[in-house]
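Record pair follows.
FIRST:
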Amino acid sequence: MMALTELQERVIGFITQNEPLEGMKGVIDEKSYSRAPIYQVSHREALLDNLTKIYTVTQFILGKPYFRSLCQRYIQQYASTVWDLNLYGDNMSRFIAHRTAEHGSAEHGCLNEHLQPYPYLSTLTAIEYALHKAYYEDDEPRVYPQALGDIPKEHHLDIRFSLNKTVSLFKTIWPIETILKEHHAGAIRETLMALESEAYLVVYRDLNEPTMRPKVETVSAALYTLLKGVSQNKTLGTLLQEASVCGISGTDLLNGLPCIIEKGWISRVEWR
């Protein structure tokens, strides 16, 4: 007789990982077997509902019928592996990028062709998911300016910061912030031109607002470089050296410190 743990794993696998119903024959009784598809369909509908809540702008651009078809394909390809359904959907950007690259394939040609007018969708969906994830992330302690004053001057170059978990960084040639603002206003233009130079974006939960709602903000190259280095756990000394190689002055880099601290983008500071 199958052990309870193994039985539970088989049933959960069937419901959450799109396994064929035939695999459950002989594993569960006939009555439960007849009900199994209901649980599987309910689970898929819950995933679909969550994807439509996360990717509201993408759905607006593609249209609800096509977006629903795209999500159904996504659910078939990416099983739910997280305990919280709110966090499902993190591979949508990769999924769309792959389908856009597959333009003209025999298997998904019609679906993929619909994506061609929107080369920015892979970036847009990555940012939409980052906004969603920022909302659900656990709170982290903030760092305040006085914390830097407690560090001896001789150790300033040894300082390491930790990026707040709600913060995500993006570099793109597409006017994503404009797309999001236009959607909020109820209209998105049909054609978009790439930017003349790369834009640097930060997604974060605004800790200085009562609602603490997630936002997207455009930042300078110097501030992006600083945040990128912080995300890689580099010391301040290393960041200054690498910035000079990239043509960014140490002054511009250091001037960004008060900004990222004030905005709550830093959750910890260490120097030992």
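SECOND:
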Amino acid sequence: MEQKNVLKMICAGLVLGGLSFAGAAGAAATFPDDKAGITAYVKLPAIGDDKLRILKESFFNSVESYGNHHAIGVKEYTTCQDYQSQNGKTNFHIYVGADGWIAAYLLRTEEPARLVDWDDPAGLGKTMLARIVEDTAQKIGAAIPADLAIKYYNFAYPDAAKMTIVKESIAANEINASTSAPVLIDDFSATAAGTMRQVSWGLYVKNSVCQDSGDTVALLIGGDLAGGSCDRLSYGNYYYVYKFNDHKSRLIQLSKHSNSSSANAAAAVVFTYSLF
């Protein structure tokens, strides 16, 4: 995967895969791999059933499964303070096994772009899923060693080997220093070295001048309109993923309507791809 505007890249080429429940009969039998999509996980030493009770009673908002040395629950997290009632909150799923497995995941029916933390303008490389794994470990008093990386796996595309997350933004009333004109377009290019499996996007727009004709900020992927927005946070999947598989550069463009130069606009795109 090759991108330009690399300073705006949140996570470049995160390695997917490596999640194996082999030899872990409890996790293999109880983790919902038929429902899970993009997943962040870590394997710690055994934590015991008493810790699972803590999660059930004082951490999860709701419990999906409990017993047989595991707990699965749902916890709501705010991913965007500006739009808490409009996609700014997401229910994340959490699996914890008494044998030490901790995994935070989105369902495969949900857009992977929901893992983006919109309130982290710096884009320091931590996804919501990684944060939830850390929060869960902290809740049960289990320390994640500094040299133990949180890893990712996509159960919907088990052959995917890499994930890249890019976040583009155009500030309100941003001016081009060379032309003194309002900045209305920001873009980058992407090329898949292997086979693209999934492209998911999120689009944030605040303080735009909504038009009678529709959305005031658009996200285009390879010339196709992926999504549009007017003062809201929206998510979706790009359905023409096969177009990346000719290994040619594709332009991803965030575009504001000329009447919406005062809007804050940001787009996040999550690419999942194999290396063959």
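COMMENT: Confidence is low (pLDDT under 50) at residues 1-13, 21-25.
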